Amino acid sequence: MKQKWKIWGLTLLLIIVSRESFWFGTYGNASLYTLRDLFLMVLPVAFILTHVSYRFSYRSVGLLFFSILMFVFTTVLHGNSMGGPLLMISSFLSAFYISKLVKMEVYLGVFSEIITLLSLCSIIVWGGCLIDVVTPVVGYNVVGAPVLHKFFSVLFMNEESMLLRNSSIFREPGVFMVYLGLSLIVELIYLPRVSYTYYYLIGSTIINIFYRRYCDRSINSSSCYTISKENQFISLYIFNFASYWNIFFYE
Predict the structure, then answer these.
(1) Label partner for 191 (CA 20 to 30 A): which of 18, 33, 78, 130?
(2) Are 227 and 233 in contact (CB under 8 A)?
(3) What does residue 86 show for φ and ψ, rounded to 5 degrees?
């Protein structure tokens, strides 16, 4: 249990300080970017120092270095350094240690719990702003787009339809949609039991993202999988509704 909470805290921290978050990705604060890069550089060093005696197989180490080499080569070749080779190498090393020290089922369960918590918090803020119970702070991201934020949750205003699009802590609703999709896949396929509390909460969050692209196909696929697996027909109705809701309001 103690190890799970450590992984829980570390995973949440990694999501918060990632380049895909609003505060550490597109907020425009150089100090936060520096803090993010320092953390990502120090983390693998901490793993190495605290697990000096841990022995990895030659095959695992070989695959790690091959992956690092290929990733660095391809990103630099296309002119996208992703913060520099050192940051990429440190990220690979951290992921390598986490994958070896934590059981996959435990880590995926933690990931799903975190995304569900972020979904719940974002729905509360989104709903509060919608009915004028919560007064958000108006700001701008690095490209000058207006952003509303409150309690670390971010909302984007669609200028044409005036819809408030839920983005949680992420730099845009599309990124949030990716995390929700990953969590949905984890719940349906990789975990031994489906938590329908998490499942329906994620579906409810998808409704207030208003994200059209890939939404209908990914949701319908996951719904059909659930039906074939556990004969839960209500899942089809809920997620189809979420799909067509996004298509209707945000084309």
Answers:
(1) 18
(2) yes
(3) -65, -40
State the burial class of residue 135 (Cβ atoms within 10 Å of its Cβ: 0-12, 13-18, 19+): exposed
Contacts of 100 (CB under 8 A, 6+ apart): 54, 56, 60
* Cβ atoms of residues 173 and 210 within 8 Å: yes
Residue entry with tokens 């080569």: 73
Let me know the angle formed at the C-alpha of 204 by 198 and 206, rounded to the nearest 5 degrees.
105
Residue 170: its pLDDT value, please? 92
Q: Is 19 exposed, middle or buried (0-12, 13-18, 19+ CB in 10 A)?
A: middle
Alpha carbon of 7 to those of 57, 100, 103, 113, 151: distances in Å?
23, 13, 11, 12, 23
Q: By the 8 A CB rule, do 211 and 173 touch?
A: yes
- In the three-class reduction of DSSP (H, G, I as helix; E, B as strand; rest coil), residue 162 is classed as coil
Q: What pLDDT is recorded for position 247?
A: 44
Q: CA nearest 166: which of 187, 148, 190?
A: 148
φ and ψ of 194, to 5 deg: -85, 125
User: What would the two tokens of residue 69 be?
Assistant: 């080499």
Q: Which residues of the chain have pLDDT under 70?
A: 1, 72, 74-85, 158-163, 210-251
Distance separating alpha carbons of residues 237 and 219, to the nearest angstrom = 11
Q: What pLDDT does residue 70 have?
A: 74
Q: How far apart are CA 148 and CA 160, in angstroms?
A: 16
Strand order in the sheet with 137-140: 137-140, 146-150, 153-157, 164-168
Which of left, alpha, beta for 155 (phi over 0: left; psi -120 to 50: alpha)? beta
